[in-house]
Design a protein that fits this description.
Blueprint (H helix, E strand, L loop, with lengths): L1 H6 L42 E3 L8 E7 L4 E6 L10 E6 L16 E7 L8 E5 L5 E4 L5 E5 L9 E4 L7 E7 L6 E6 L14 E7 L8 E6 H4 L5
Length: 231
Amino acid sequence: MEYQETKKTKLAFKSNKRKATSNPDKPKRKSTSSSHKSKPKPKPVDTRTWVPIRSESDLSGPLVFYHPGPCIHTLSIHSSSLDSSNSIAFYPQPNAAIEEIEPTRVEQVFVGRVSVPGNNDVGTRRSFKSSRGSYVSAGRDGHVECGAAAIGALEMWSPVMVQCEHEGAVALKMCLPGCDDVRYLSIGTQEPQDPKEPGAHVEANAHATSIGTHQIFIAKCQANRSLQPLA
């Protein structure tokens, strides 16, 4: 339901940005400025539609997750409508810069929502829903997929804000039910030989029990959400 409500606002992608057009029939205003008055310099316009999250509260609504590195990887479900699997993986984005990269397909966007509010003992747990209506989940064996139709214990992730050289750094922790075991969403270590090859990807898993470089991701939200005042 929350993904359908989000789509009403139309997700903004770089390829969809509208260019300003002039109206030839609209009369031009005459300049009223006098020569002795200097015009104020216009403020620089931020053309980005997706920006790094500033706090955990930004993890509600449309999100995209990137793993920074020599080659940036984007968390995404498979883009083919013919693929009926629940696969989710990290796809390489050659020659992209982490400060400028934005999602290009709806399969890269996940809608975050609070599933269990936090308290003094347990942090806030969130679920992440794909464009197909399925949730990102982790099995006890560390297998990560995106096929759950409903939210259960294995679909709830606890965000951990991380100090990093990049803004918006976060790790996603999974507390396995019935035990004290903790797992973190991770990008695999087996890189594709040719990242430009169609379908090249790196597996997503939840084997790690602590945070390292393979468990830190840059989360971006839509700019209009991040502009809200911090609580």
